[in-house]
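Troubleshooting entry. The earlier prediction with NAP gave an output that would not parse, so I re-checked the input for stray whitespace and re-submitted. Clean input:
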Amino acid sequence: MNNQRIGFIGAGNMARSLIGGLISSGVKSDRLFVTDPNEDIRKSFTKDFSIKTFADNQELVEQCDVIVFAIKPQVLKMVATEINAKNSALYLTIAAGIPSESLNNWLGSNKAVVRSMPNTPSLVLSGASGLYANSQVSEEQKEIAESILRAVGITVWVDDEAQLDAVTALSGSGPAYFFMVMEAMEKAGIELGLSAETSRLLAIQTGFGATKLALEMDDAPEELRKKVTSPGGTTEQAIKTFEEKGLVEIFSLAMKAARDRAEELAKELGK
Ligand SMILES: NC(=O)c1ccc[n+]([C@@H]2O[C@H](COP(=O)([O-])OP(=O)(O)OC[C@H]3O[C@@H](n4cnc5c(N)ncnc54)[C@H](OP(=O)(O)O)[C@@H]3O)[C@@H](O)[C@H]2O)c1
């Protein structure tokens, strides 16, 4: 994506992370642009990243080869129908729940659209994003879209857009599941007599350490779990309780509920 000019519509949290990540990965600031209705926000992007900003989305569209929609899903239809979208550009949306076909229609059809589902750890450059490309997207444009999301974490492509609803249920909503496990461990630690502060610190650091091990070791999470579960030991007792209470089934039910809601939202938001 050497000479591509990348423009972000919406200078919010995600645009800030993506632009920060791209600049850290070596993209020159004169290839990045952003629009936002708020003048103070525009000034902060110029100050922090030395990039050109616009109040008018159309001005940005005319200058860029890649347009990233980094606005709330509720305003995407209005913004996409208002701009005069050129055919040659790649349109990348990170707005949760809006189907690529809806965006393509709002832009005037026959547009190259990549729909991505990032997650909140993207804000600390540790995100996980699912991506889907419509049939208009070239291989080169796919690589560009992937490099943009890779600036804030890992990326995976899905061939069937419906799978983005599963990605939403897994990595999109997933950070909240881990927060809930940390909350539950913190509460249980307090019940066992630890101070609230100690319990929270141990719960969070254990989550971090376990994740780091899972990322850095070749073993699958199941193997890592077995390795710390000695026969007759303490972990075995805890795991037995989780199994008896149906933890795995609970995750399956919870993620199906999240997937179903993602499907419903896509229908509502894509109208
Ligand atoms: N945050 C995450 O971790 C995360 C994860 C997954 C997906 N996403 C998706 O990423 C998108 C952006 O999220 P965010 O957290 O960055 O949102 P955000 O912080 O609210 O940023 C959106 C920005 O767009 C501006 N805006 C509103 N209308 C505009 C218009 N017509 N033209 C140009 N800019 C406009 C907003 O200004 P005002 O505030 O003045 O309206 C705001 O500064 C959302 O669609 C969200 O679903 C975010």
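This one parsed fine. The mean pLDDT is 96.
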